[in-house]
Design goal:
Number of strands: 23
CATH class of the largest domain: Alpha Beta
CATH architecture of the largest domain: Alpha-Beta Horseshoe
Strand order of the largest sheet: 4-3-5-6-7-8
Bound molecules: 5'-deoxyadenosine, iron/sulfur cluster
CATH superfamily of the largest domain: tm_1862 like domain
Largest sheet: 6 strands, parallel
């Protein structure tokens, strides 16, 4: 039987050594877990929930997998390449287990959900398989696996939101934190495996979201990103007040916690983002002027095959609306090249849409067929990889030009920057972000700022990915 420990000190938690409870009683974890996360921000956020569940069961974190009793991989299935990377990593852990047979290896997340017991039976790569809605069962599964039993739980839930679990912040900079507001996805984009691996959409209790954000603020954090696959369809009924909490209402409630707490969110679906959300962003200075609005393709025909439920024109009208209501809004996108039947004309439509939208940044991929998705069942993956890659390189080249142009346009402007820490290249410079989510670098000399402070920075130079400037006392 494991001893029970309670820990509230995030920083100490990260060191993975000894822990003090708030009542000065010393807590020693008897076992260690090591966790690696892959894929989207939601997975990283889930790992923090898993860490909290394990802490309560007597497992402390370690950043060295060789010291771990349990090694966990929180996995991603979105593209084949992600799965391949994870398989390679599992092989490495398998080798270590040969010298240390008591060490347990577990796969969590989307790949666990997709491959289920195949991992245990056919591949014999792991000891524990646990899907995204079953993390509460992890301590019991670890015990079962330790006794040599089959340890699988891939049940998806219609209710689980882990609302009551206070995540343990892992690898955090102490300034920016992620808060999950919903789980799953009801959109059936035909290329996407997420609805199958993460299940039906459900929204988390708004009170627990506000409490978590307020707690982060009290712990010194100055930015929260509200996370969901499709945040605009957040919907929760507060029965005590007979109030419907929409995403716009939720944004407002989080913004009102404190004007010094910045609020971001990800991801929006173009079909669901409302004027109410846009007006809420423009009303509150601390809700960042930045929207990630994945388009996926610029061709209406391809969008239809992707089941995105909007046309090229409809999407562009949405971009226009955003710029009307929030004139300085940063906008980014996700783009897929080489989807089934995509012609050169369709590809050309993606390039022209990018130009119209003037994206500040994009995440760009070539299409990777995922087993079980609507596209895999309905359409042939008929674009040669060479063509997919060539189109992707054209999209990337154009995005680089657009990012460069967008950054050049910011030279001479002043931005309010939240300082996240040292710049990667030199600890003589600070790194922070503008409201529009652009990385801003500026010298530490001439001021006595600290991490988590806001600075006004006048931009005097830029690269494709970064703004460079100097602080000014006021706008
Ligand atoms: N192939 C390539 N890219 C994909 N994405 C999702 N599924 C696939 C796929 N099968 C991309 C989409 C999505 C982002 C998170 O990943 O652009 O918005
Ligand atoms: Fe996948 Fe579409 Fe849901 Fe995003 S909105 S997770 S792309 S199904």
């Amino acid at each position: 039987m494991l001893d029970l420990f309670i820990d509230k000190t995030h920083d100490e938690n990260r060191q993975g050594e000894r822990f003090m409870s708030t009542s000065t009683e010393e807590i020693v974890y008897t076992k260690r877990f090591y966790i690696e996360s892959y894929g989207c921000q939601m997975n990283f956020s889930d790992s923090e929930i898993v860490a909290s569940i394990l802490n309560k069961s007597g497992f402390g974190p370690t950043s060295n997998f060789e010291d771990a009793d349990v090694v966990l991989l929180n996995t991603c299935s979105i593209r084949e390449k992600a799965e391949q990377t994870i398989r390679n990593r599992l092989q490495t852990f398998r080798q270590i287990k040969k010298q240390k047979p008591a060490m347990l290896i577990g796969v969590l997340g989307c790949m666990a959900e997709r491959l289920k017991s195949k991992f245990l039976e056919e591949e014999k790569l792991v000891d524990i398989v646990i899907g995204p809605d079953a993390y509460r069962a992890l301590p019991a599964l670890i015990e079962e696996a330790g006794e040599g039993q089959r340890a699988v739980n891939v049940l998806l839930s219609r209710e689980e939101t882990y609302a009551d679990i206070s995540p343990v912040r892992l690898n955090s900079n102490g300034v920016t934190g992620f808060v999950s507001i919903m789980r799953g996805c009801n959109n059936m984009c035909s290329f996407c495996v997420v609805p199958f691996t993460r299940g039906r959409e459900r929204s988390r209790d708004a009170h627990s979201i506000i409490n978590e954000c307020a707690e982060l603020f009290n712990d010194g954090y100055r930015e929260v990103t509200l996370l969901g696959q499709n945040v605009d369809s957040y919907y929760w009924i507060d029965e005590s007040k007979d109030e419907i909490v929409t995403f716009a209402k939720l944004l407002e409630k989080v913004a009102l916690i404190n004007p010094l707490l910045r609020v971001r969110f990800s991801t929006s679906h173009p079909k669901d983002i409302t004027d109410e959300v846009l007006f809420t962003i423009s009303k509150y200075e601390n809700i960042c002027d930045y929207i990630h609005l994945p388009v996926q393709s610029g061709s209406t025909r391809i969008l239809q095959l992707m089941n995105r439920t909007y046309t090229r024109e409809w999407y562009l009208a949405k971009i226009k609306r955003i710029r009307e209501i929030i004139p300085d809004c940063g906008i980014s996108s996700d783009i897929i090249t080489g989807f089934c039947t995509e012609t050169e004309d369709d590809h050309g439509d993606t390039l022209t849409l990018m130009e119209y939208a003037r994206y500040d940044m994009s995440y760009m991929f070539f299409y990777s067929e995922r087993p079980g998705t609507l596209a895999a069942r309905r359409y042939a993956d008929d674009i040669p990889e060479e063509t997919k890659r060539r189109r992707l390189s054209e999209v990337v080249k154009l995005q680089n030009q657009l990012s460069q142009a967008s950054n050049k346009n910011d030279v001479g402007k002043i931005f309010k920057v939240l300082i996240e820490g040292d710049s990667k290249k030199s600890d003589e410079n600070w790194m922070g972000r503008s409201s529009q989510n652009k990385v801003v670098i500026f010298p530490k000399a001439e001021n006595d700022f600290r991490k988590g402070d806001y600075a006004f920075v006048k931009i005097n130079d830029c690269t494709g990915a970064t703004l460079i400037g100097r602080t000014v006392s006021t706008i």
